[in-house]
Amino acid sequence: MTKPRLYSGMQPSADSLQIGNYIGALMQWRDLQDSYDAFFSVVDLHALTQPDDPAERREKTRRTAAQYIAAGIEPSRSTLYVQSHVPAHSELAWILSTITGFGEAGRMTQFKDKSARYGADATNVGLFTYPVLMASDILLYQTDIVPVGEDQKQHIELTRDLAERFNSRYGTAFTVPMPVIQKGTARIYDLQNPTAKMSKSAESDAGVLWMLDEPTATAKKIMRAVTDSEGVVRFDRETKPGVSNLLVIYAALSGQQIASIENEYAGRGYGDFKKGLAEVVVSEFEPVRARALELLDDPAELDRVLAHNAGRAAEVADRTLADVYDKIGL
Ligand code: ADP
Ligand code: NA
After folding, report:
1. Atom 19 (ligand 1) nearest CA
2. Is residue 303 a part of any domain in this protein?
3. Any idea which positions bind ATP (predicted)?
4. Do 80 and 29 belong together in one domain?
């Protein structure tokens, strides 16, 4: 029996991924890669919606791919590739844009948020059509499931609508994908501002735990994490967002229940708890960091792996695209 197909990706928008990307995405991807025929993409075309230096861009793309592999995404078991290496993504995006309503695209809340933040001058058309490119990413691979965070739910709905619209107008070319909204998945918050999502594109990185940080830098950030004055290691998102966030990280990486961590640190201060957490994070990230740096030491080999995987991706994507061209009369 063939395995159901899974698609996911991340933007190469920083030199390092952060612990939220690891806990919220990479750990799941790693677990899912055996039960699914998984495609994991470094979505560099999406990252073009943000200005960057070309050399930096190239480097961030390589680094992101290296971190996928270092975190346990195996390019022999999963198709791990760079989006722009498969031109079908851009080609299908154009076709899908012609069946996307202007008003429909305008209702995407992520675009509304981003364009409000950037202002009219910094908002580009690519940001507006971003969800159409995302639909193309997913639909090219006849994807059955897309593991995503809550914030991407609307984009997956659009993807489904576009697939159904195309299929009913021109004949079935696409699998209609199901979102798997990762409810149980922990959302990780900024250590300095524990009500804001930790992000690799945060303005300040004082509260961001980078996968590629030196262990001492990671420990320092954890020791400085914002807590509260109660002095009790107890989970309560409402009144203790800082401590709760640290507990969630601890639980996700150690596999322990939050209650058992609370017990372990009962009667001890935040200093002890933070030291314990720093050990948990550093021991998880140390091998990941070492492996990523080793991969980045041999960029030619990494590029070879990525090129090979892009070839595998293109085989599937090109088949879908050829069918679409045929059905639409091109
Ligand atoms: P970032 O905000 O770091 O740029 P992205 O928006 O590129 O992250 O998301 C990449 C993946 O990482 C997505 O699957 C997203 O759900 C996950 N992710 C990002 N930040 C977090 C977080 N703080 N907590 C949990 N998951 C996260
Ligand atoms: Na981002």
Report:
1. 21
2. yes
3. 11-13, 20-21, 149-151, 188, 197-201
4. yes
Q: How far apart are CA 63 and CA 40, in angstroms?
A: 15
**277 and 304: one domain?**
no
256 and 216 belong to one structural domain: yes
Helix, strand, coil content of the chain in percent (nearest 5): 60, 10, 35
The ipTM assigned to this model is 0.95
What's 239's domain CATH number?
Answer: 1.10.240.10
Report residue 231: phi and psi, to 5°. Answer: 75, 15
The one catalytic residue in 3, 112, 183, 200 is: 200
Whether 200 is a known active-site residue: answer yes
**Domain limits for position 97:** 5-186+298-328
Token representation of residue 284: 């998880």
* Ligand closest to the CA atom of residue 194: 1
| 221: annotated active-site residue | no
The answer to whether 206 and 192 are in contact (CB under 8 A) is: yes
Domain count, the chain: 2
Whether residues 44 and 78 fall in one domain: yes
Per-residue pLDDT tens, the chain, 330 aa: give them: 799 999 999 999 999 999 999 999 999 999 999 999 999 999 999 999 999 999 999 999 999 999 999 999 999 999 999 999 999 999 999 999 999 999 999 999 999 988 888 888 889 999 999 999 999 999 999 999 999 877 889 999 999 999 999 999 999 999 999 988 776 668 999 999 999 999 998 989 999 999 999 999 999 999 999 999 999 999 999 999 999 999 999 999 999 999 999 999 999 999 999 999 999 999 999 999 999 999 999 999 999 999 999 999 999 999 999 999 999 999
CA of 19 to the centre of ligand 1 (A): 9
Same domain, 48 and 111: yes
Q: Is the CB of 11 under 6 A from ligand 1?
A: yes
Is 75 near ligand 1, meaning CB less than 6 Å away? no
Is residue 195 included in any domain, yes or no? no
The closest ligand to the CA of 50 turns out to be: 2
